[in-house]
Write a structure and sequence with these properties.
Helix content is 80%, strand content 0%. It has 161 residues and is mostly helical. It is elongated, with a radius of gyration of 22 Å. It starts with 9 loop residues before the first helix and ends with a helix.
């Protein structure tokens, strides 16, 4: 089967999954790690997870920028727009709340930002596979339509004998 222009090449696809996987693991790890960690070195787990999460977030900004071509192609082809638009909106929200968490000084605001950032971040990891699966279904249908189209035109173009 021919690869679609909407597909990401395999190395870039691996980079997208690795980057967002690191965000999921470190974010969920920080979110669900018990606050009073005791024992040798365990008290440093939550700060370490936040540092790794921040580095992965910087990598994710680069990855999101590199996805602009993919986004433009999908949008102009009118394919997978709903989940794509949701992905863009949720990632923009996560970028804004992540920025706010880093720079906000007021504790009430930080608590609100933290809560929303965490839960929306987990939601992205439900939407990302949904977007990928929907895109694959759309591509399969397009390939099936293209494969069927020449057969129909050949059959219609033949004269009865």
């Amino acid at each position: 089967m021919q690869r679609s222009t909407f597909h990401l090449n395999r190395p870039f696809q691996a980079l997208v999954y690795a980057t967002f996987g690191a965000l999921l693991i470190t974010g969920a790890g920080w979110m669900f790690a018990p606050t009073p960690l005791e024992g040798q070195g365990w008290e440093q787990l939550r700060p370490l997870l936040l540092k790794i999460h921040g580095g992965a977030a910087m990598a994710a900004l680069l990855v999101l920028g590199a996805l602009v071509t993919h986004i433009r192609r999908g949008w102009s082809a009118d394919k997978n727009r709903l989940s794509g638009a949701l992905m863009i909106a949720l990632n923009a929200f996560l970028i804004a709340t992540g920025y706010g968490l880093y720079y906000a000084g007021e504790e009430g605001l930080r608590a609100w930002l933290s809560r929303w950032h965490a839960w929306i971040g987990l939601g992205v990891f439900i939407l990302l596979p949904t977007h990928v699966i929907a895109g694959r279904i759309i591509i399969r249908r397009l390939h099936a339509q293209k494969a069927a189209a020449p057969k129909q035109t050949r059959a219609e173009g033949q004269r009865p004998r």
